[in-house]
Amino acid sequence: MHHIVTRFQKYFSILLGLSVLFLSSLCSFAGTKIKLGIDHLEDLNFSVLSGKRVGLLTHPAGVNSSGRSTVLVLHHAKEVNLVSLFGPEHGIYGDEKASVPVDDKIDHRTNLPVYSLYGKFRKPTPKMLADLDCLVVDLQDVGVRCYTYVSCMRYVIEACFEAGVEVVVLDRPNPLGGLKMAGPMIDREWISYVGAFPMPFVHGMTIAELALWSKKTAGILKIEESVRKKGKLTLIPMKGWRRNMTWPSTGLVWRPTSPNIPTLDSVAGYPMTGLGAQMGKFKHGIGTKHPFRFLTFDGKSASEIKSALEGLNLKGLSYKIMDTQDSSGEKINGVYIVIEDWAQWQPTELAFAMMQLSARWESPSPFNGAKKSESNLFNKHVGSTSWWNHLSTSGSSVYPSSFIIGWNREVKAFRKQTEPYLLY
Fold this sequence. Notes:
Largest sheet: 8 strands, mixed
Strand content: 5-15%
CATH architecture of the largest domain: 3-Layer(aba) Sandwich
Helix content: 25-40%
CATH class of the largest domain: Alpha Beta
Distance between the termini: 15 Å
CATH topology of the largest domain: Rossmann fold
Number of helices: 12
Shape: globular
Order of helices and strands: EHEHEEEHEHEHHEHEEHEEHHHH
Radius of gyration: 22 Å
CATH superfamily of the largest domain: Uncharacterised protein PF07075, DUF1343
């Protein structure tokens, strides 16, 4: 049962250590911003945190709807006793490179300790949690399974439940909206930090919905079942967000969530080209002004790439030859991916088509005879052993469309399974 706040009701009961504070989130007015979880928390005068020693897991995109850092909102609130901070991949300032370990620090704004959860430890240690009654999570996700902020949240939930520390999740929009879902489910053998939840590659859920689903469903959290059931999870939903909303319709300013996701263009590009450039000679614009949206292929001209992409007849996309510069200022000619029709666009379709082109254009295929470390990393991101087996043996004769049909069936089944845990 949820713990709900509406215009007419203050509180309902709490069951199994799970509470959801819900301020009339079904109403939205044209031209106005939605209210984020942190805004909702402020509206409640931080009552959820009153009398508790509080930790905060966040990053630079963790801001309220006015753009003020959640760190400073909690630090300056007289009702909140903020005692420590926790940083995910890229660090609490968002300036650390991908996959690079981050050290513990002292936050220069608050003089509070910052514990890195992407360094020596991925999971908070008992020592880190010893002085806390609750740990607040305020992370902006991008709606893609391998983006590690949701993985960080899962590890935090596990550690806190084991330590008897409450978890408070401040919800934020899925920038791709709550309807787009695509790509393969992840096979259990590939569950890892770049795929910590058994869900499609594009999952269509908010971060609080993922937390609720993992709390209420056996087997997602890697802890004892009795610990999962006893663990206390409090969710602070948004006001005014609806599932059909993409980021532009929220009225909010996009803030970079990591160095290579600086814009909304890169948010949409991440599931569209990220997997397709993981192995082989495709590059997807990292180091340019158009990360995940600008394609080049060593040995192929921009016109050859554009012609091949157009021959795929992928719905919702068009392709534009253009020049840009890399980080050293060198001019690069390539193909910019344009989303012409959001409704028809399938977020992961291009990535798998890129793999097929790589297998066709490279000899030998980069997927045939790959090192074990390369294939394992590829599969941890993609998630489908079946796809890898066919791609690595049949190469360019493998057509993604037949796999996509099957994946779409699995996506529908996943949505039915998770529907009880959707907050909006």
